[in-house]
Amino acid sequence: MKTVAIICEYDPFHLGHKIQIDLVRAHFGADTTVISIMSGSTVQRGRLSIYPKHLRAEAAIKNGSDLVLELPFPYCSSSAEHFAKGAVALISSLGGVDILAFGSENGDVDALSCAADVIRSEEYLNAIRENGKNGHIKSAEEIFHSLSGDGFPTTPNDILAVEYIAALKDENCSILPYTYKREEGYSASRSRELIYGGADASEMLPESAISVFERTVPTDPAAYEAVALHTLRITDTDTLSSYYGMNGGVAGLIKANAESVSSLDELISSSVNKSYTAARIRRAILSSVLGVKAETVKERPLFTALLAANGKGREYLNKIRKTASVNIVTKTADGFDLPENVLRQFELSLRADKLMALCRKEATSEVFKRNPYIE
Q1: Range 168-175 average pLDDT
Q2: Which residues contact 299 (CB under 8 A, 6 or more apart)?
Q3: E strand map for 276-372
Q4: Helix (H) and strand (E) counts for the chain?
Q5: Angle, vertex CA 150, rays to CA 147 and CA 156, nearest 5
Q6: Distance of CA 312 to the CA centre of its chain
Q7: Residue 308 — φ and ψ, nearest 5°?
Q8: Can you give the residue ranges of every domain in the chain?
Q9: Residue 269, by phi and psi: left (phi above 0), alpha (psi -120 to 50) or beta?
């Protein structure tokens, strides 16, 4: 029996996610244990998730996952490299995982592995570090092609796939990568578009997921936008520069624009240029709101939180609890009993949960009342 991990956001859980879980079981066997390592209150594009993490986790269990553990903040809202490294380090620290499964546009794990070897090579890393010193700034793709020719990942899932494989190689663990070719049709962005537009999302979401999400309302992005814009306006440039993603002139650019715009979206669009993508800007802003220092995302995650499980998932947890080298928090309040170095990470992640509660017009006490969904 195989244990397969999937790194995910489920923002929200849609039919494509169910297809992925079904594909994993079809390939590795019906008795496969599927573990979902899921982003918490914030997601990789630098936003709050559309629904609370415990409901997204419940939807996953109802659609084939056996166990949902949290990829805590700030890893869940970092660049593709740090998102992948944090998630893979967490999976490796759990132990007992055989396979990391992910979709990709390429669909060829060997080709993706070759690309991962290039981006891990000293030649590539030195070229990235030296980039621009001769006055000509090359893109990462140009540097890659100069060393290896074709194979540079350009699509979102291929980029993540290469980073997953690179992280597995860096971990030097026995977990094997497995990829399948993603098909067009279902997407989280299209699902959110339908939901926020008040349209029928049944074409995108499983019926059981819809029934879970109908118990609440989508997170209103307007509250977060006000908090973020206010934070940027009252924080000096030097302080902003110390936060993750604010290096390389980003802090000065955002600070200069923050006073002259009337919305966060306007600030982001006015700050995007050839060097800085909208996602980079959004992640940097979120890091500033929650006080994430640049070096923090380079640390290994030392804890995860149990969000949901069924019988098979609980069986896996019982098996690895004494041997895992990562702390598994079952209830939020238990997190305050963690060792000091782990507590620091827990409290930072808790800030994201409190921000989520604020923007959903919930009391902070609600964060501590939620228990994992157990089926």
Answers
A1: 95
A2: 345
A3: 303-309, 327-329
A4: 17, 10
A5: 110
A6: 24
A7: -165, 155
A8: 3-106+156-218+297-374, 112-148, 221-290
A9: alpha
pTM, two decimals, is 0.94
The tally of CA atoms less than 13 A away on the side-chain side of residue 176 is 7
Closest to 32 (Cα-Cα) out of 152, 159, 178: 178
Tokens representing 9 are 């956001």
DSSP, residue by residue, 45-58: TTEE-SS-HHHHHH
Band (pLDDT 50/70/90 cuts) for residue 138 is low
Could you tell me which residues are beta bridge partners of residue 101?
A: 6, 178
Bridge partner list, 48: 42
Instruction: Record the tokens describing residue 205, joined without a space.
Output: 């979401």
Cα-based distances in Å from 39 to 45, 151, 319, 352, 363: 11, 28, 24, 11, 22
Give the mean pLDDT of 328-337.
94
Give me the pLDDT at residue 135, please.
56
DSSP annotation of 138: P
Cα distance between residue 29 and residue 2, in whole Å: 8
Q: Beta strand 176-181 with 99-104: parallel, antiparallel or unpaired?
A: parallel
Q: What is the model's pLDDT at position 132?
A: 59
Please say whether the beta carbons of 8 and 63 come within 8 A. no
Cβ neighbours around 126 below 10 Å, total: 11
List the CATH code of the domain at 3-106+156-218+297-374.
3.40.50.620
What is the model's pLDDT at position 37? 98
On whether the CB atoms of residues 190 and 204 are closer than 8 A, the answer is yes
Asked if residues 18 and 206 have their Cβ atoms less than 8 Å apart, the reply is yes
| Residue 366 banded pLDDT, cuts 50, 70, 90 | confident
